[in-house]
């Protein structure tokens, strides 16, 4: 191993939040602060926009005890953005500006924490710096509750959302089975293109407190079949619980949530209440049953009080591994996980080529979806269960979470 | 104290579930099982309907270790009902049947766990048994997340819902402040007639992570003022978060959630997505901002994983006190709490006259609502904060809650 580059680092967060994105942040920041080669640790305020606008937060100025609270503070503590960087061959304005900032602060390490788009950003910056001959290590740190990054066994953030979804569904199951008068419950989970999160509802069936049916966006949604499924189960049990992905779509590709007309709504305007409310209305008209639609909404991606301890540890490890890899001379890579489950769960970090990760969506394997397209198989449960083990070390004050409060000193 | 009556007891659960109603159940069941005077402990399956239909569960047959899990199992483990018993002077059919069942099983103690309607049921049964000269002790055990029972300082179930609401709002606050592009968030809490639960959102402001405004149903809702509040705060901070009660209503008494026409919906039909979705649409049209409506729905009343330790202990204590009071010869009473907060929080159980409790709704004091009618005062926070202290002793298996699974042996 060569002597590592000496210089500053920038860490940024991008895309939608998760319960554990700050655990990754802490992995990067703490490891960078501890390194003798990294001279200064900057946090980009609102991701790459913070770099472009020269809004860098000095992590060295923060209280180490406060930084530790990042382990259980949800959402992006440094602020996030959804800024899609241009193709440098078309417009290299942003890249010139990033280079200017890197030179101004002597930045030799850049760590970016996000999903597909963020890995694309990472990849482009890395390639540009190599092209112009600026010596800099660029490593991506994965984050997405959607669990759709290519290569890695799973993505930091997914497991905590999965644990929250399964826990909440078990609790709602109890609530929905309390009367003997019959009830249908439709629970909407996130996942526009991938069904991982909705599939996590199946974990609740380990104790028999989960959904009767699970509908994911990897296969086409058939409203008639859905209504037949639900009606039959309701007639049999006087109860039916369903988990649906926000991204379920008809065979023509149109989202069910955007259906402009339906049995109950012929006014030709979009319904406001989202998919769960729409399906609840359709089912109510069909069955006459008491029907409740529940949208887990933002709660599923920020419920840090119910985060997976395993997810927190692995998120931290991925941030730490990113810094260690960069110090070892690696660049243009994303940290991911390689796991085995045969003799107990074992997880290790591994580097993946950014160019292979960027902009490719990893979906739920079709063979993990049942033949009737209304459930997921035991293979998924075996895959997912180890990820949700363990609890958060969250500290509470006044009976409520005591999240990290950064001083946010600008450079 | 006279020698207690010897005989069986029936315990029943009624009305909407809560996270801790089973902690009260455990208080009753364990104390009754331990009593030398109570010969048999029956659980009514689906409340008073279980008594009327002779569906009684034998609690003596359950594994004591399993029963202990009731402390952290949400919803009504014995099943609930929403059965309004008739006035005995008009129709005494139900009462004759209840007497028949009491005689069949030699029932000398009846404990009923619920809200206003359930206390009314208790009161009527108690009066009827006295009238016909059947020696029986009838004690109500309070339960309602709505916190609207008369006399008692607070109601078992409220604090756990309050803790969940405040926790979730703190987490959503973090999520909604992650971008620098502006956002308005509207969070809908339960409480059709009383604003206690929505007021609990204010607890999140202890750490500055709570709503800008809180709207409760104790005062009339003014849509123009609401839009002015939200717009001004959004223009100032590029962000605004609001907590609203499902029961907010206009000056004419009509619920905002049932408004058939609005700025965005002139089609004259009820919107499906509930109040949060409706207000989000109105605010979006007014401001052009990114707006998200979140309905906490059933989650707030069944999220046992986030229950208040204090609430669990007090719920257990109220069930225990009910049995002890009955053994001591009391009848026609409800157990409630008397609390002091001056030198640290102190809570004791006390008996209240059922006739005074039944069918009276205890609302949020008007002096705890600010003059602008868009927030609650420090007095509410001082009242509520001690109630949400402490965590649940919930045991997990496979990283998920391990709820109580009763054998449910019928008598």
From TrEMBL, chains A, B:
One of its GO terms (biological process) is fructose 6-phosphate metabolic process. The keyword Metal-binding applies. Its cofactor is Mg(2+). Mg(2+) binds at residue 116. Its EC number is 2.7.1.90. GO terms for cellular component: cytoplasm. Keywords: Cytoplasm, Glycolysis, Kinase, Magnesium, Metal-binding, Transferase. Substrate binds at residues 144-146, 190-192, 246. One of its GO terms (molecular function) is metal ion binding. Non-allosteric. It is found in: Cytoplasm. InterPro entries: ATP_PFK, PFKA, Phosphofructokinase_dom, PKF_sf, PPi-PFK. Transmembrane segments: none annotated. It catalyses: beta-D-fructose 6-phosphate + diphosphate = beta-D-fructose 1,6-bisphosphate + phosphate + H(+). The record marks 143 as: Important for catalytic activity. Diphosphate binds at residue 16. The record marks 117 as: Important for catalytic activity and substrate specificity. Residues 13-306 form the Phosphofructokinase domain. Pathway: Carbohydrate degradation; glycolysis; D-glyceraldehyde 3-phosphate and glycerone phosphate from D-glucose: step 3/4. Homodimer. Belongs to the phosphofructokinase type A (PFKA) family. PPi-dependent PFK group II subfamily. Clade 'B2' sub-subfamily. This is Pyrophosphate--fructose 6-phosphate 1-phosphotransferase. The gene is pfp.
């Amino acid at each position: 191993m060569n002597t590592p580059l000496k210089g500053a680092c920038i860490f940024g967060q991008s895309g939608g939040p998760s319960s554990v994105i700050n655990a990754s942040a802490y992995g990067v920041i703490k490891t960078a602060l501890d390194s003798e080669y990294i001279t200064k640790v900057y946090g980009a305020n609102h991701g790459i926009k913070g770099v472009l606008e020269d809004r860098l937060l000095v992590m060295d100025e923060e209280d180490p005890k406060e930084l530790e609270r990042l382990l259980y503070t949800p959402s992006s503590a440094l602020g996030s953005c959804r800024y899609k960087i241009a193709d440098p061959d078309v417009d290299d304005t942003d890249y010139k500006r990033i280079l200017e900032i890197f030179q101004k602060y002597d930045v030799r390490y850049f760590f970016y924490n996000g999903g597909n788009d963020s890995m694309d950003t990472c990849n482009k910056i890395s390639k540009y710096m190599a092209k112009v001959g600026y010596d800099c290590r660029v490593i991506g740190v994965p984050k997405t509750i959607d669990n759709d990054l290519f290569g890695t066994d799973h993505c930091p953030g997914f497991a905590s959302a999965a644990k929250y979804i399964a826990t909440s569904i078990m609790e709602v199951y109890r609530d929905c089975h309390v009367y003997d008068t019959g009830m249908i419950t439709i629970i909407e989970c996130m996942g526009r293109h991938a069904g991982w999160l909705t599939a996590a509802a199946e974990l609740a069936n380990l104790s028999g407190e989960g959904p009767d049916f699970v509908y994911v966006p990897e296969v086409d949604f058939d409203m008639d079949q859905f209504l037949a499924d639900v009606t039959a189960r309701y007639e049999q049990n006087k109860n039916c619980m369903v988990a649906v992905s926000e991204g379920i779509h008809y065979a023509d590709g149109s989202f069910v949530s955007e259906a402009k007309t339906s049995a109950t709504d012929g006014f030709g305007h979009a319904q406001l209440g989202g998919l769960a409310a729409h399906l609840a209305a359709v089912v109510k008209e069909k069955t006459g049953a008491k029907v409740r639609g529940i949208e887990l909404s933002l709660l599923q991606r920020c419920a840090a009080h119910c985060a997976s301890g395993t997810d927190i540890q692995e998120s931290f490890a991925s941030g730490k591994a990113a810094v260690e890899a960069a110090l070892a001379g690696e660049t243009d890579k994303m940290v991911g996980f390689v796991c085995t489950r045969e003799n107990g769960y074992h997880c290790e970090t591994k580097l993946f080529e950014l160019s292979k990760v960027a902009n490719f969506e990893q979906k739920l394997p079709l063979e993990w979806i049942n033949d009737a397209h209304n459930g997921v198989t035991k293979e998924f449960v075996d895959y997912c269960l180890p990820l949700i083990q363990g609890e958060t070390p969250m500290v509470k004050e006044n009976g409520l979470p005591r999240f990290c409060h950064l001083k946010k000193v600008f450079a």
